Amino acid sequence: MSVPNLVVLDGFLPQFKIGTTVKLKSGSPDMTVTAINSHWAEVQWFEGDNPKQKIFPMAALTRSRKSDG
Q1: How many CA atoms lie within 13 A of 27 on its CB side?
Q2: Which helix (H) or strand (E) holds 47?
Q3: Which residues are CB-neighbours of 8 under 8 A, at least 6 positions away?
Q4: What are the structural domains of the chain?
Q5: pLDDT value at position 41?
């Protein structure tokens, strides 16, 4: 069975799926999850017209109210 937008690594079921909108628990702009592994999520967002990208620990992220997933 195939599940779209779900990445499973070594028996790990991710907290967020790719495309989920998240924020840092401490506060941040809305960011989109672009890659994940068992402890880290790569996210992207914009500051004005400038795209930004960073890797954060999964424990530091929470689902944004804008999130579809």
Answers
A1: 0
A2: strand 40-47
A3: 14
A4: 1-64 (2.30.30.140)
A5: 93
